[in-house]
Amino acid sequence: MRTAQAQGFPGFDDLDLERLRARGGVKWRRAGRDVLPAWVADMDFPTPPPVAAALRQAIDDLDLGYPDWPNGSPLRPAFAKRMAERHGWSASAHRVREQTDLIQCLQLVLHLATSDGDAVAVQTPNYPPFLATLRTMNRRIVPLPMRDTDHNWQMDPAAVDTAVKRFGCKALLLVNPHNPTGRVLTRDELGDIAVIARRHDLLVISDEIHAELAHAPHRHVPFASLSDDAARRTVTLTSATKAFNLAAIRCALTHYGPDRLLALRDAQPPDLYGTVSPLGVTATLAAWEHGDAWQRDLLTVLDRNRRRVHAVLRERLPLVRHHLPEATYLAWLDTRPLGLDEPPVEKVLREGRVLLDGGAPFGEDADGFLRLNFATSQEILDEILTRVVEALGGRRGGAGAGDRMAP
User: Where is the Aminotransferase class I/classII large domain (predicted)?
Assistant: First the structure.
């Protein structure tokens, strides 16, 4: 394939297709040789240089022995510091616990705080592994459908209140910024949810892993920062993996607001749920302490790409409903107005040779939707858009600015 043009962003736009296909990760490995993957939420960009340097240094120093962390890893104060600097939230380092993965964080909290058959309210559509976790753990899913309005996707506070009361929910799983719609809930919207949580004594499990991928002027507000009551009832789940493209380091954090839940967690055998790798801690610290410049460039690229997706869809697939994502690198596309005779994921793969996500795994009423990952180079994204548009019968006209890429 030809390389990106000089005016692009080095490290972001100079991706080589053959090197991407040679990667061992699931995103590219699962796609065929002639397929472009834009499905799972991994970015195509290389590891941030400060993170790569820190990991190399640990290897060069032969520093792979048991860590000396009698009071927890150094991520605990680092998390508290970052929350204060980024969001003005006075999180407590003493309430932070490390896990290997955000899904594990959720599963542990559900295991400790809820019981078999308990009702858990959750926005729909939603991240498929979260919904699968609730089903596997036999927690009754109470869907809180997001409403597609003229301006964005919204939660309906009255509907949330009614559903929580009707089904006697024990917990609310809040994904904010939201995957897959890309919404960033405002302080007022979060305040409405906080009132409902207090009224019904809900545990709020707040997944905030996309917090650092909010696009200006939208700003992330940690749910636990809203009030003392919100802080006491909220468990916050997060990681550096999404904002710095580090999924394989297997390092995530849980901030426990409820005293009782933290005590239950600490009463468990110390290694029952695994321990975080020192290399995961090294990578996360390097990202948080030295990766901000890289992240600013990343957000510039993602902002350009989200606008590109939005513009191409409006021009060439005007019937497909789509809102400019306020956060993340994921676009949520409603293809139902096209009246397709097969699931859009299958159609785009068969006719366009692009692998996307979507459909029933994202919850009730998600059939006919596609989730498109636009965290890739300008050239690859343009080729993805060209193929998707053609597969869905869009108007003619190139989405890209050059020749078609070689398969």
Answer: 43-387
